[in-house]
Write a structure and sequence with these properties.
It is globular and about 40 Å long. By secondary structure, it is an alpha+beta fold. Strands 2-3-1-4-6-5 form a six-stranded antiparallel beta sheet. It has three helices and six strands. It has one domain.
């Protein structure tokens, strides 16, 4: 891989954010992912609705968003209860995704773990 290809690859990877939702209602997971798909491209189709899986343990929903291009601003969404969200990606990408959530939800940062090139942010989302 030459330096131009490597730089292009690095830029693409740094624009992706992995979003995880755990232990929330299915409709709340759908509301969060729908709001994010309004603003960004995702690895999931628009009609891919989260579904509860029977069995022991908690359900975790995961999707990856490419924040390099903002499509539109998300409208406010209603949640049945607060939702805990984990974001993981490059510093700029995670910040972009956090900003995109603000029009749709009341966003509170609960914690952050910083690495050399990536960070993980824990958020609490509530209905505005």
């Amino acid at each position: 891989m030459n330096s131009a290809e490597q730089a292009s690859h690095t830029e693409h990877v740094s624009a992706e954010v992995v979003v995880e939702l755990e232990s929330c209602a299915t409709q709340d997971a759908h509301a969060v992912f729908s709001a994010l798909r309004t603003s960004f491209s995702s690895d999931r189709a628009a009609d891919d609705v989260p579904e509860e899986v029977a069995g022991a343990g908690s359900t975790v929903w995961t999707s990856t968003f490419d924040v390099s291009d903002i499509k539109a601003k998300a409208e406010p969404r209603r949640l049945t209860a607060p939702v805990m969200v984990s974001l993981q990606g490059g510093y700029w990408a995670v910040d972009q995704l956090c900003k995109a959530l603000e029009p749709a939800f009341a966003v509170r940062v609960l914690g952050m773990a910083a690495g050399d090139q990536e960070k993980e942010v824990e958020l609490r989302l509530e209905t505005r």
